[in-house]
Amino acid sequence: MADDADNETTETSEPQAPESEAAAAEAPAADAPTPEAAEAQDAPAAEAESAKPVAEEAPVQAQAPAAPSEPVEQISSKERRRGERSKHSGEAKPRRTPEERHAERLAERKAKAIKRRTRRLQERAKAAERRKTAPAQEPLAPVHARTEGTRKVRQGVVTSDKADKTITVRIDIARRHRRYEKIVRSSSTLHAHDENNEAHEGDVVRVEESRPLSRSKRWRLIDVLEKAR
Predict the structure, then answer these.
(1) Per-block average pLDDT, block size 10, for the chain (229 residues)?
(2) Nearest CA to 205 among 170, 164, 165, 166?
(3) Domains, the chain, ranges and CATH?
(4) Which is the most buried residue in 92, 102, 141, 150, by most CB within 10 A?
(5) How far apart are CA 167 and CA 214, in angstroms?
(6) 10 Å Cβ neighbour count for 137?
(7) How far is CA 144 from CA 116, 140, 141, 150, 210, in A?
(8) How far is CA 31 from CA 9, 28, 55, 73, 175, in A?
(9) Per-residue model confidence (pLDDT) at position 41
(10) Distance between CA atoms of residues 216 and 85, nearest Å
């Protein structure tokens, strides 16, 4: 009897598994939302995401500092022309003889010379027109105007008239000493030019400073104040 009871229990328990599996399969189908309900649920989420500030989005990566530019290589004009010729992709010129190349160079130089000459003539013509229309400039005052200072004049006694057109004059000087208040007398001798030999020994004359007239003469006779007796 016990064995029969056990067999019944096993038989009754085995068919319950498919029912539970079918129920489990039906349960998700019943819980699954319809397409309209899914769209309605996604709409608020999309609005919330769009309402977020831009700052909350993925942070923008900072731009890396630009690398320092490399120094430009200085090349000569000859090398630059050579590089341009190497990059030229047009048709090559026909082969020419050295004489033909020389003739072409001469023709090119002649054309350039004509252009230069024409430009210079135009510039000269424009400069001439500007000079004609420009107002007359006032003469500039000399920076170092020629001036003549006051020449020194001395009075003395002729001590010698032996030389031709030359007299020796003694200048007597009397001055007071700075400290001792004593009258100090001194004399100096100079040579003066006498064009007409008017002065003689013992005369009182007046001489004036002049340009160098000889090796020792820097003075000139003005007049004879008193004749010797």
Answers:
(1) 47 46 45 51 52 46 56 82 81 86 95 96 95 84 78 96 96 95 96 95 96 95 93
(2) 170
(3) 153-226 (2.40.50.140)
(4) 102
(5) 13
(6) 6
(7) 43, 12, 9, 18, 22
(8) 33, 5, 38, 76, 143
(9) 56
(10) 82
